[in-house]
Amino acid sequence: MAAAAATTPHSLLLQPRGEPGRAVEGGRHFLLTPPLGPCRQDLAERGVYNFAAGPATLPLSVLKRAQAELVDYHGSGMSIMEMSHRGKEFDAAIKKAEADLRALLAVPDTHAVLFLQGGATTQFAAVPLNLCAGPSDPADFVVSGSWSDKAFKEAKKFSAASVAWSGKDGKYTALPPFDAIKQNPEARFLHICSNETIHGVEFKDYPEPRNKSGILVADMSSNFCSKPVDVSRFGVIYAGAQKNVGPSGVTVAIVRKDLIGAAQPITPVMLDFKTHADNASLYNTPPCFAIYICGLVFEDLLAQGGLAEVEKKNAHKAGILYDTIDASGGYYVCPVDKSVRSHMNVPFTLAKGPDFEKQFIAEAAKEGMVQLKGHRSVGGVRASIYNAMPLAGVEKLVAFMKDFQARNP
Ligand code: PMP
């Protein structure tokens, strides 16, 4: 699949309705199924490289496949948006999405994969509701940026959440040595945000939970499936899909099965992991289209050779961007401690100040590099370079950065 896609990146395989794989000629009864896998022609085909933090750029090959299947899904005569979530087509799509995700992350049988709604923000409440016995049950939070701070504040409503370490005084530019995290041995879980999307701080390894149940929980929204992860080390992993693996509307949760079924009595049915685990994520109407797109992204990542390959590409892309910042003689500044710089979200400022940042962002947009504005809470520039950002996009950005500096010394 990967090899075929690499040699004929945009060839359309004609397939007859309901009989994938048999090429025939012309006529209205044909599906166009562009191959997934490496196919990165964004600038040539779309006119832009999209550096948005989320919703973010999706693989062009996935969009093309979805486009080809949009009106008549696999010969059903219906879009996947128009059919029962309990029908055979969607059943196959969600099962394949789960199987491919399990293969990508080597999710062990001890863990359930759930496709949920309400965004990662809803998990800020769901996690303490499912893991803590009540509001006086302690839980530990590493607060390394805006997102883990939000998770902590929400958890306080449903647990005795406390801050085991905070990076606030250092303006969220670092992570602690793990022995500096003041873990409460009575805590029900230790919560981290594996990649702070706004501040660009990423865990390169994970702390060992010292609490009595040994539960580590991670919000992986912005680096989910960007590299291999040892899932067995986590009690709960959750991620809003709209950065690395799909559109907004679906949140993936990977939950250790023995932690399911002990939710607080006040837990709304939709926030109880057991509801979704018992019903294979089909308790109510799921976000069918979003799950289907995630399935295509998982297939695409497998076609690229899996997450070890994807990680190499991401490290290379991030490397050339950080090298450009660091070699600029202080013209561009990334405040984040080098050891924890995110491979997904690269925030930087221009030493010449906000007016030059505005000019930089406007000129970049004219050259087809869009959505580079930093988050409104921190300003500056932010280049989000998720899995689907092609290397050519980052190469174009660094060439532009060098040129901008030369023109505006
Ligand atoms: N956690 C992180 C790390 C995020 O980046 C975001 C969204 N940007 C959220 C949580 C909130 O996600 P959602 O909008 O899906 O609720």
Automatic annotation (TrEMBL):
GO biological process, one term: L-serine biosynthetic process
Gene Ontology cellular component annotations, sorted alphabetically: chloroplast stroma
Gene3D superfamilies for this protein: Aspartate Aminotransferase, domain 1, Type I PLP-dependent aspartate aminotransferase-like (Major domain)
Reactions listed under catalytic activity: O-phospho-L-serine + 2-oxoglutarate = 3-phosphooxypyruvate + L-glutamate; 4-(phosphooxy)-L-threonine + 2-oxoglutarate = (R)-3-hydroxy-2-oxo-4-phosphooxybutanoate + L-glutamate
Keywords: Amino-acid biosynthesis, Aminotransferase, Pyridoxal phosphate, Serine biosynthesis, Transferase
Lineage: superkingdom: Eukaryota
Pathway, per record: Amino-acid biosynthesis; L-serine biosynthesis; L-serine from 3-phospho-D-glycerate: step 2/3
Enzyme class, UniProt record, top EC level: transferase
Chain intervals for the UniProt region annotation (Disordered): 1-20
Domain Aminotransferase class V: 48-397
Gene Ontology MF, one: O-phospho-L-serine:2-oxoglutarate aminotransferase activity
Claim: Amino-acid biosynthesis is one of the keywords in the record: yes
Keyword flag Hydrolase: no
Matches recorded under Pfam families: Aminotran_5 (PF00266)
Membrane-spanning residues: none
Entry EC number(s): 2.6.1.52
Family per similarity comment: Belongs to the class-V pyridoxal-phosphate-dependent aminotransferase family. SerC subfamily.
Record protein name field: Phosphoserine aminotransferase
Organism: Miscanthus lutarioriparius
